C-alpha cells in the first residue's frame, strides 16, 4: 500500500528538485527543466542557477513565495537578483508543462534567461539541441522544450543542453506540445483560477490555509535514496546535509499531522519516512539524512505515535498502523532502557561519534529538541548513564502520551498484550511525574537527579502534563491561571515565549532562549484540549494565528521561530537564527483548523 501511495505521489510535473525552486521536474521520468539567469553587466557575467525560499543565511537572490498547488498544476514565485526582478509561473494541464516568466524590474543591460534541460538522478534519457529548441527523450516519451523568444548564440559553461534568450520582455516556455505565448498565458490563468477555488473552500481560514499549504508544497521534494516524496523542514536545511534531504524527528511528525488536513499521501509519506529511521538506529533519531547520515547517539521528542493516531482518526487506514506500530513500539521500549534514572526519564546522548556534533551534554540538549534552552544551563551530564542529570517534565509527559497513543493503536490492531504493557508503563510514569508537581508554585518543575533540587527555569514544556492527561483538573487550572496567562511569564501580545519573560535568558532572543516556537504553542494547545479551559485555548489559537499571518503579510515568510516582538527575523539581528520558510511554523495556524473541527484530533486524554 505504501509503495503504491509513493508511486502515485511521485508523478507528474512539480518542483521536485531540492536544489532549486526554479527546477521543474517530471516524475517518474526524471526530466528536469531548469530556469536560470545570466547577468550581462559590464563587470562580468554571473549565473543564478539555484534559488531557495528565504534561507537562513544571506544569499545573492531573494525569493518570495506565491501559490503552489500540491500537484504542481500551478506554481508562482518572485525572484530578485542582480538588479533583476521577475515572476515565474508554471502550470500543466495534463498534456505538458508551460512556464511564464515576467520581468518586473530590469537593469540597464537586460540579462539572459537560461533554460537548461537534462535527466536527474541518473535516469535514462537524453537531450539534444534542435534548431527550434531542445528535444528530450525520456523512456518512450519525447518532449520538445521551446521558448516564445528567439534564442541567442551564446556558448555558456553549462554541462546540460540549454537555450539562451534575451530577457527584456515576457517569455513563455513550453515542454511537450509547442505553445504560443497567448496559449501559455491562457493555461497559466486557467490553472491559477482553479487553485484559487480550492483556497476559497476554507472560508475565514483561507489565508491561514494558504500559509500552511505553501509551507508544505514548496518544501515537498523527491529523493532518490528514499525512492519517494517527502516534505523536509525546508529546502535550505537540506543543503547542510549533502544537498539531498534531512528529516528531523518531531518536526517531520508534526508536519505529517498538518499535511493530513487535506493531503493524505504527503502526511503518510512524512510519518512513515520518519518512523523508518528506527530500522537503522533502534529509535527514531534526532535526524536522518541522505547519504547514510544520521544521529546514532540521540533521539528527539517522542510525538510519533500521537501524530499517527491522529492521522488514523482522520482517515481510518489500518494499514498505516500495521506498517508503523512495531517500529513505534520498539522506540517506546527504547526510552526506559536508555533514558531512565530513578523511574523518570532524562534527555541523553550515547556518545557514538562520528556525526560531528558535540557529544554528551550538547547531544542531550539536541535530543530535547530545544538545543540551547536555559532549562539545561548548568545541568551536568553523567557519562555513566549518558544522561543530563535532570528529570524532565516535558520528556516524561510526551512519553506518557506516547504510551497512551500506542496502547490505543494496539487495541485497534487487536494486540491486547502490548496494549496492557503500554498502559502499565503509562501508569508507572504518570505516578512518577506527579512527584514533580510543586504545590506551592502551582506547576510541575524539572528536578535534578544528582541533588534532588527543583529547577526554577520555566518553559512551555512544563505544561505538557496536560497533554499526557496526568495533571488533575485543579493542577491544570492553576498552571493556566498562574503561569500560562501570567504576563510576567508567558502571556502577552505575542505568545508563547520558549522561556518565561522574567527569566534572564528571555532578553537574549537567541533560538530557544526566549523566541516563540510553533511546536511549543501547538503541544500546549493539544494539552488544553484535554481540560475544560475553553477561553485559554481560544486565545492561544487566535494569538498564534495572528502572529503567523502578521509575518506572512509583511514578508511572505513562515518562520522557523518568531522573535518575541512578533517577527520572524529582525533586520541586522546578530542572532537571526530563524529559517524564514520552515514548515512547522505553520502549526501556528493549523490549531485554528483543529479548533473549528476541520480536522480530526485524538480523543481527549482523561486526567
TrEMBL record:
Signal peptide: none annotated. Coiled coil: none annotated. Pfam families: MGH1-like_GH. SUPFAM superfamilies: Six-hairpin glycosidases (SSF48208). Residues 249-548 form the Mannosylglycerate hydrolase MGH1-like glycoside hydrolase domain. This is Mannosylglycerate hydrolase MGH1-like glycoside hydrolase domain-containing protein. The lineage of its organism: Bacteria, Pseudomonadati, Bacteroidota, Cytophagia, Cytophagales.
